[in-house]
C-alpha cells in the first residue's frame, strides 16, 4: 500500500510517495508556484553507493592515534569499526584535548546547510554538546555573507537588510518604477533557502513588474543572472567594480544638485565626508559618469542617463550576496546604501536599497510575525572564535593576530576538528593551501551521510541519517508555514540521527541529561512547535493548531506581514526610531573606521582597486576574471553525484562558460576540455562557448566534489579533475574589518587541454 509522507528540503517542500522502503515519486508542495527542479535529486539521498553506512577510522590514525601523520588524510584507507568503538574514540579525543589544551583547541566546524530541519541541525546540536562540556572555537558569519553583514551592522545598526527582514517584493512590485539589480536576480539561487522553502515566489513578482512596465537594469558580467523574459537592460560590468558604478551614479546626482539634502541631514551621519569624496575634494578624482566608465567598462552616457532616471522615478536598488564575496566586499554594500541615501528614497514604498533578493528564495517574500522553529545551542562558555573564512590561517599560524570589526584577536591552536555536516573542500578558497592546513590538527572527526571529499580526509567518520530517515520540523521567518518532516524510511546501514549521535556522546561525556532535557526526538519536536505556537498567540494573536493536528496535516500556517517597507518608521521619525549605529542614523562617514585607519576599509564608501581584476597592471596578457557562482543543479556541493547534477556536466566535469571571442582567441571550441590555472592551482572543465558572458570573464560554478589527480605530494599543485573553482580562488579576507571570503576576486588563464 502506498504511503504519502510530507517532507522538506532547502530547495522546497514536497510529498514522498512511498511503497514500503522505496521512493515511488516526489510531488512538489501544492502551494508552490515554481517548484525547484532540484526536487528530482531527493531520491539520491538514499543511494547506498555514496553513503557512509558504518563508522570508519583512518588506518594511520587508528595505529598511532593523535600522533599520526595528518598528511595521510585523503591517502590512507579506512577501517570499519563498531559504534561503541567509534563513540569511545570520539569522546576520548574530546576529553583528551579539552583536559590537556583547553576547550579552545576544539574547532566546531559545522556548517548549516546539511538539513533544513531545525531539530536535527548538525551545527546546533554539535555546539549544544560542546557548550555543555566547556565550549569550543567556533566561527562567525558565513562564506555566503562575510563582508556585507559586518559593514551593515556598522552603518545600519543590524544586518537585517540582508537576512530577509527588508522591503518585501509586494512593495517593490507595486510601487517601483526603476529596478537596478546589482549582481543577480537569478532563479538558480532563488530556488534555495536555509531552513526550507514553501513557496518560490520571486518570479511571480518579477512578472508583475514586467506587466507594470517597470524599467529593469541588470548590472552583471553574466546576462542570464535574471530570467530572460524580464527583458532587462543588460550592463556587462567588469567584475568587482560595482562600487565604482554606484559612486559614479551618486556623484552625477549630487553634481546636478538633484540629491535629497534634507534626507541626508535628517537621517544620516558623515554625509559631508561622502560628498567630499564624490566631488574629488578628498583625492582629486571627481566621481562622475566619466570616472565610473573608466573603471567599469560601461558607457559614460548610459551611466549619466541612469542617474537622471533614478532621481526622477521611484527607484529600488538590489544588491546580491555575491558582490561582497570579494576583496573590499564591504564597499558595494556601503556604496549602494550611499546611493540610496543620496536619492532620499530609503523608507518609501518600492524605493531604497535591499540586499540578497534572489540570493535565496525567501528574501523579499514576507516577514514572519512569530518566532521560527529552532533548537537551542545553549550558552557558549568560552569566547574563542574566528571569522568563518579564516580557517586555513588559523590552522597554519596558531597564535597569530587577526582583526574583526575593529578589534584584534588571536588564532587559537586547534588540536581537534569536529565537522558535522558541510564540505569545506567545497566552500573554502585556495584548496591546495587548505589541504596543507588540514594536515595540521591531531584529530579530525567528520559526521556526514556521504563520502564527501571532506569525509575522505577525516580520521574518524560517523554515518548520519539523511533527512528522510528521521522526523523533524522546518520553518523560517521567510515562510508562510511551518512544515512537518516525517520519517519516510529506515536508516541506511548503521547510520544514526544527529540527535542520537550527540546524545550518545553526551552520555559518555557526562552531560546527557542536560543535553536531552529528558526529551526524545518526538518530545523535542512537540516542544519546539509549542514555542512557535505560543509566540504566535502572544505576539500576533494568531491561533495555530495543536501539534497532533499539525503533524497529521503536514503543515501549519504562521502569522506574517505580506508588505513591509524597510526603515519606514526610521524615515518618519529618526529620533523615535534610532538605529543601533554610532550616531543613531545611517552612517555614510564613520568615526570608528576613521579612527581605525584601515586602508582596505576606509571611513566612507569608496572604490578600492583589488589586487586581481581586469584593470590590474599585474593581470597578465590573456588573463580572465573567474566568477564562481552557485550552480543551477545542486545546492553548493550537496548531491553532486546525483543524476540532476551530473546531467549538467560533460564528461564528468563542470562546464566553464566563456565568451565566443575569448574562446576563439585561445583556439577553444564548444565542448573542448580546458585547463584553468594560476599561481594557486589548476583544474579541468568543459568549455561552453556563449555570448551571455562578458568578454574577459569565465564562469565556473562551485560545488564539484574536489578530485585532485592521484599521486600528488602535499606541496604539489595537483591537477583538479572535476572542475572545482576553489583550487584557483585566493584565500584572503575581504578587509581587516570583516575578514569575509574573497572568492570573486580571482584571475585565471585558460587553454585547450589535451590529455598527455
SSE topology sketch:
Elements: E1 2-9, E2 12-19, E3 22-28, E4 56-58, H1 59-64, E5 78-80, H2 83-101, E6 106-108, H3 122-132, E7 138-140, H4 147-155, H5 169-175, E8 178-182, H6 187-190, H7 202-212, E9 215-219, E10 233-235, H8 242-255, H9 261-267, E11 268-269, H10 271-279, H11 289-296, H12 300-312, E12 315-319, H13 330-343, E13 352-355, E14 367-368, E15 385-387, H14 391-396, E16 401-404, E17 407-410, E18 416-420, H15 424-427, H16 431-438, E19 443-448, E20 460-463, E21 472-474, E22 481-485, H17 498-508, H18 512-516, H19 521-540, H20 547-553, E23 555-557, E24 560-561, H21 568-572, E25 586-587, H22 591-596, E26 624-627, H23 643-646, E27 655-659, H24 660-665, E28 673-677, E29 682-690, E30 697-699, E31 719-720, E32 747-752
Parallel strand pairs: 6-18, 7-15, 8-9, 8-12, 9-10, 11-25, 12-13, 18-19, 19-20, 26-30, 27-29, 29-31
Antiparallel strand pairs: 1-2, 2-3, 4-5, 4-20, 14-24, 16-17, 21-22, 22-23, 26-32, 27-30, 28-29, 28-32
Helix pairs in contact: 2-17, 3-17, 4-13, 5-7, 8-11, 8-12, 8-13, 11-12
Characterization of this structure:
The protein has 756 residues and is of the alpha/beta class. Among the domains are: 2-46; 147-368 and 564-584, 3-Layer(aba) Sandwich (Dimethylsulfoxide Reductase, domain 2), CATH 3.40.228.10; 624-752, Beta Barrel (Barwin-like endoglucanases). It has 24 helices and 32 strands. The strands form 9 sheets. Strands 5-4-20-19-18-6 form a 6-stranded mixed beta sheet. Strand 1 and strand 2 form a beta hairpin. Helix 2 packs across helix 17 (498-508), helix 8 (242-255) packs antiparallel against helix 11 (289-296) and helix 8 runs parallel beside helix 13 (330-343). The longest helix is centred in the C-terminal third of the chain and has 20 residues, at 521-540. The radius of gyration is 25 Å and the shape is globular.
Amino acid at each position: 500500500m502506498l504511503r504519502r509522507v510530507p517532507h522538506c528540503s532547502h530547495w522546497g517542500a514536497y510529498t514522498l510517495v512511498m511503497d514500503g522502503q522505496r521512493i515511488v515519486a516526489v510531488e512538489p508542495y501544492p502551494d508552490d508556484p515554481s517548484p525547484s527542479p532540484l526536487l528530482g535529486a531527493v531520491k539520491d539521498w538514499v543511494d547506498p553507493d555514496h553513503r557512509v553506512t558504518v563508522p570508519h577510522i583512518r588506518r594511520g590514525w587508528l595505529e598511532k592515534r593523535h600522533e599520526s601523520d595528518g598528511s595521510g588524510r585523503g591517502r590512507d584507507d579506512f577501517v570499519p569499526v563498531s559504534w561503541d568503538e567509534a563513540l569511545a574514540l570520539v569522546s576520548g579525543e574530546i576529553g583528551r584535548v579539552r583536559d590537556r589544551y583547553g576547550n579552545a583547541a576544539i574547532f566546531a566546524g559545522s556548517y548549516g546547510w546539511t538539513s533544513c530541519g531545525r531539530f536535527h541541525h548538525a551545527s546546533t546540536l554539535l555546539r549544544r554538546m560542546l557548550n555543555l562540556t566547556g565550549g569550543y572555537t567556533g566561527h562567525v558569519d558565513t562564506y555566503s555573507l562575510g563582508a556585507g553583514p559586518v559593514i551593515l551592522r556598522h552603518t545600519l545598526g543590524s544586518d537585517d537588510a540582508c537576512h530577509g527582514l527588508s522591503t518585501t517584493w509586494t512593495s517593490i512590485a507595486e510601487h517601483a518604477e526603476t529596478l537596478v539589480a546589482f549582481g543577480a536576480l537569478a532563479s538558480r539561487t532563488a530556488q534555495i533557502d536555509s531552513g526550507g522553502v514553501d513557496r518560490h515566489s520571486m518570479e511571480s513578482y518579477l512578472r508583475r513588474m514586467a506587466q507594470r512596465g517597470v524599467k529593469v537594469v541588470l548590472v552583471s558580467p553574466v546576462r542570464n543572472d535574471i530570467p530572460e523574459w524580464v527583458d532587462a537592460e543588460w550592463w556587462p560590468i567588469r567584475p568587482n567594480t560595482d562600487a565604482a558604478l554606484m559612486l559614479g551614479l551618486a556623484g552625477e546626482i549630487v553634481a546636478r544638485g538633484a540629491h535629497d539634502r534634507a534626507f541626508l541631514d535628517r537621517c544620516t551621519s558623515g554625509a559631508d565626508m561622502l560628498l567630499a569624496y564624490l566631488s574629488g575634494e578628498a583625492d582629486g578624482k571627481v566621481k562622475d559618469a566619466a570616472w565610473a566608465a573608466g573603471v567599469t567598462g560601461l558607457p559614460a552616457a548610459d551611466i549619466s542617463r541612469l542617474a537622471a532616471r533614478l532621481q526622477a522615478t521611484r527607484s529600488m536598488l538590489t544588491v546580491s550576496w555575491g558582490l561582497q564575496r570579494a576583496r573590499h566586499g564591504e564597499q558595494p554594500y556601503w556604496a549602494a546604501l550611499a546611493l540610496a541615501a543620496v536619492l532620499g528614497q530609503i523608507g518609501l514604498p518600492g524605493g531604497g536599497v535591499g540586499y540578497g533578493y534572489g540570493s535565496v528564495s525567501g528574501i523579499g517574500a514576507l516577514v514572519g510575525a512569530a518566532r521560527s522553529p529552532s533548537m537551542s545551542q545553549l550558552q557558549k562558555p568560552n569566547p574563542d572564535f574566528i571569522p568563518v573564512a579564516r580557517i586555513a590561517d588559523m590552522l597554519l599560524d596558531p597564535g597569530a593576530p587577526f582583526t574583526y570589526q575593529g578589534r584584534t584577536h588571536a588564532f587559537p591552536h586547534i588540536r581537534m576538528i569536529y565537522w558535522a555536516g558541510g564540505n569545506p573542500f567545497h566552500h573554502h578558497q585556495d584548496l591546495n593551501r587548505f589541504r596543507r592546513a588540514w594536515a595540521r590538527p591531531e584529530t579530525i572527526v567528520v559526521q556526514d551521510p556521504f563520502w564527501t571529499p571532506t569525509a575522505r580526509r577525516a580520521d574518524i567518520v560517523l554515518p548520519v541519517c539523511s533527512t528522510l530517515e528521521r522526523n523533524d520540523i522546518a520553518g523560517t521567518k521567510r515562510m508562510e508555514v511551518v512544515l512537518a518532516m516525517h520519517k519516510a524510511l529506515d536508516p541506511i546501514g548503521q547510520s544514526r540521527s544527529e540527535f542520537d549521535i550527540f546524545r550518545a556522546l553526551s552520555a559518555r561525556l557526562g552531560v546527557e541529561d542536560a543535553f536531552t532535557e529528558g526529551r526524545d526526538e518526538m518530545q523535542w519536536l512537540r516542544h519546539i512547535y509549542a514555542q512557535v505556537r505560543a509566540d504566535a498567540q502572544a505576539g500576533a494573536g494568531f491561533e495555530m493548531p495543536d501539534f497532533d493536528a499539525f503533524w497529521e496535516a503536514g503543515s501549519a500556517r504562521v502569522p506574517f506581514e505580506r508588505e513591509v517597507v524597510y526603515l519606514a518608521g526610521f524615515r518618519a521619525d529618526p529620533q523615535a526610531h534610532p538605529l543601533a549605529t554610532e550616531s543613531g542614523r545611517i552612517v555614510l562617514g564613520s568615526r570608528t573606521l576613521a579612527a581605525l585607519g584601515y586602508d582596505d576599509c576606509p571611513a566612507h564608501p569608496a572604490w578600492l582597486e583589488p589586487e586581481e581584476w581586469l584593470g590590474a597592471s599585474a593581470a597578465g596578457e590573456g588573463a580572465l576574471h573567474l566568477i564562481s557562482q552557485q550552480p543551477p543543479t545542486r545546492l553548493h556541493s550537496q548531491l553532486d553525484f546525483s543524476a540532476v547534477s551530473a546531467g549538467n556536466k560533460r564528461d564528468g566535469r563542470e562546464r566553464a562558460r566563456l565568451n565566443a571571442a575569448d574562446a576563439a582567441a585561445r583556439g577553444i571550441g564548444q565542448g573542448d576540455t580546458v585547463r584553468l590555472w594560476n599561481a594557486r592551482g589548476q583544474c579541468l572543465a568543459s568549455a561552453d562557448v556563449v555570448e551571455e558572458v562578458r568578454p574577459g570573464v569565465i564562469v565556473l560554478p562551485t560545488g564539484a566534489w574536489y578530485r585532485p589527480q592521484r599521486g600528488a605530494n602535499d606541496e604539489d599543485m595537483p591537477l583538479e579533475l572535476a572542475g572545482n573553482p576553489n583550487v584557483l580562488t585566493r584565500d584572503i579576507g575581504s578587509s581587516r574589518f570583516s575578514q569575509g571570503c574573497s572568492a570573486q576576486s580571482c584571475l585565471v588563464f585558460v587553454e585547450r587541454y589535451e590529455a598527455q
